[in-house]
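HUMAN: Mind sharing a backbone?

ASSISTANT:
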Amino acid sequence: MRPLHSLLTLLLAFLAAGLQPALAGPAQEQTSPKPKVIFFDVNETLLDLESMRQSVGAALGGRQDLLPLWFSTMLHHSLVESATEQYHDFGTVGTAALMMVAKNNGIALTEQQARSTIVPPPCSGCRPTPRCAKACRR
């Protein structure tokens, strides 16, 4: 009987030790520090990239399987650029990502070809408002 009593005492001691934090009352609420930066991914949310799929696919030699790689490379580099405060516009980052993917997959692509794939020529029949004229000339 003595070994059973010792075993039960030992089990109750472990149980009490395990329940002790729960019996001590409500835990102190831990507050998380407020983030200094929040990133929002607005690509394909505010910007419709569907029309680019054909042109990017064609620039990559018809390799539709490389489209997700181009897109993830572009997102990666745009996030790094934002985090390091080295902003470049969508056309510049998209062109660089397209050239990286092409080079890594043995596809010949000049910078001009890549840029014209990512940045369409301006609409010649459209006239920008005076506020936007300067931005449209870039």
User: Anything to note?
Assistant: The CA atoms of residues 60 and 66 lie 7 Å apart. The chain is about 60% helix and 0% strand. The helical segments are 2-23, 50-59, 67-83, 90-104, 111-118, 130-137. The chain has a mean pLDDT of 77.
